[in-house]
């Protein structure tokens, strides 16, 4: 028997129990890039793809890996109970154009809920997540995947929040200019952090996110940025799709020193399934990736060991890459990981925390910080990064040095 068969067989008897747990506790996945896949593969038109049908065998030329990882039948099979949908735009798009693309991606999530109301509903609060899950549908929440997407404008950030964005990743590859990324725009590792993590405007972004009740996401950021964000925030933070650096030496993963701080902060690390973040980029016989569901569970074990059971979740990153850990190839596979956790002796209650209760708690605690800041009279931040899109006569005179 090969290792892949052994890996799947050892926890197979626990699949029925895993399915029961997913019905009881919402699996709140931290990151899914289906909106960007629809933009690239289907001209951003939901009319071009029927997500109510299993599309496992569909070839999609517009997507680099040429397949979809997500559709409604597979979400249901995998027991997905709530979803943070990434409303991503790459760092190659900047300024007002990037803001527009982000708005279009947010609109696509709203369209998804409108087209399939029996399966999805927009969720704006933690209580919404609980209610929609109890009604048998998938609560849908937007997450902006890069600080560059606000175009240097906290006004844009505030409007994104009104439209249903509940987290923002401070950087994507290359960064926004006010926060140091883990990876450069060309994909190379960013060894230096010239800003020391966050520029002054980056600190203001974190504070404004706290005021709004928007979760500060520090996946994709440099280690210096992780620590700077933890220094600046009043609310719990999240890693929406990252694993642990002790088990996989990738700068996108979280070092133990930060996991310890995450415990103090009350935040969450949501373990990702892309092989390069789980076990590195190596392959075994037949050209298969080296990582398996077992290594994914190992990252959960390690995060629990360092940060504690209350600070671990799941963020698959489906439709955002290729070469997922074996056994975790698409959204239908989550119960395999849950079965592996049962095999390892996790209690029902602890599995419930990892599946989604921890993520809901973080969302709710950020809402509570926003309420407290409102009671304190904290008003909207008027800081801006880079050139304003408009200038008054007074602004022009200041630039020219006119008194």
TrEMBL record:
InterPro entries: Metal_Hydrolase, Pept_M19. It comes from the Eukaryota. The keyword Metal-binding applies. CDD domains: rDP_like (cd01301). Its cofactor is Zn(2+). It catalyses: an L-aminoacyl-L-amino acid + H2O = 2 an L-alpha-amino acid. The keyword Hydrolase applies. GO terms for molecular function: metal ion binding; metallodipeptidase activity. Its EC number is 3.4.13.19. It holds the Pfam family Peptidase_M19. Keywords: Dipeptidase, Hydrolase, Metal-binding, Metalloprotease, Protease, Zinc. GO terms for biological process: proteolysis. Belongs to the metallo-dependent hydrolases superfamily. Peptidase M19 family. PANTHER family: DIPEPTIDASE (PTHR10443:SF12), MICROSOMAL DIPEPTIDASE (PTHR10443). This is Dipeptidase. The lineage of its organism: Eukaryota, Sar, Stramenopiles, Ochrophyta, Bolidophyceae.
């Amino acid at each position: 028997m090969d290792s892949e068969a052994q890996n799947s067989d050892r926890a197979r008897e626990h699949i029925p129990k895993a399915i029961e747990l997913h019905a009881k506790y919402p699996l709140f996945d931290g990151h899914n890039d289906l909106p960007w896949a629809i933009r690239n593969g289907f001209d951003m038109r939901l009319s071009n793809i029927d997500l109510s049908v299993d599309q496992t065998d569909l070839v999609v030329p517009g997507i680099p890996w040429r397949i979809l990882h997500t559709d409604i039948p597979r979400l249901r099979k995998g027991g997905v109970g709530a979803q943070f949908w990434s409303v991503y735009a790459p760092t190659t798009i900047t300024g007002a154009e990037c803001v527009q693309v982000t708005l279009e991606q947010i609109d696509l999530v709203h369209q998804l809920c409108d087209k399939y109301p029996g399966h999805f509903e927009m969720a704006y609060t933690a209580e919404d997540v609980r209610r929609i899950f109890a009604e048998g549908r998938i609560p849908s929440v937007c997450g902006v995947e890069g600080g560059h997407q606000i175009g240097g404008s906290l006004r844009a950030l505030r409007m994104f929040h009104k439209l249903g964005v509940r987290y923002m990743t401070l950087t994507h590859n290359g960064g926004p200019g006010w926060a140091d990324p883990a990876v450069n725009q060309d994909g190379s590792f960013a060894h230096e952090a010239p800003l020391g993590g966050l520029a002054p405007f980056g600190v203001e972004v974190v504070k404004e996110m706290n005021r709004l009740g928007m979760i500060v996401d520090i996946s994709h950021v440099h280690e210096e940025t992780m620590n700077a964000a933890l220094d600046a925030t009043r609310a719990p933070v999240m890693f929406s799709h990252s694993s642990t650096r002790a088990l996989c030496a990738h700068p996108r993963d979280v070092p133990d020193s930060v996991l310890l701080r995450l415990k103090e902060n009350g935040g969450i690390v949501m373990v990702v399934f892309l092989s390069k973040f789980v076990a590195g980029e190596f392959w075994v016989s037949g050209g298969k990736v080296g990582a398996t569901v077992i290594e994914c569970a190992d990252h959960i074990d390690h995060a629990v060991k360092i940060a504690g059971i209350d600070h671990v979740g799941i963020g698959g990153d489906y439709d955002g890459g290729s070469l997922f850990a074996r056994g975790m190839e698409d959204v239908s596979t989550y119960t395999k990981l849950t079965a592996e956790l049962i095999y390892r002796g996790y209690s029902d209650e602890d599995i419930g925390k990892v599946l989604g209760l921890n993520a809901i708690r973080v969302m709710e605690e950020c809402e509570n910080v926003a309420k407290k800041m409102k009671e304190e009279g904290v008003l909207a931040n008027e800081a801006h990064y880079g050139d304003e899109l408009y200038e008054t006569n007074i602004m022009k005179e200041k630039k020219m040095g006119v008194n």
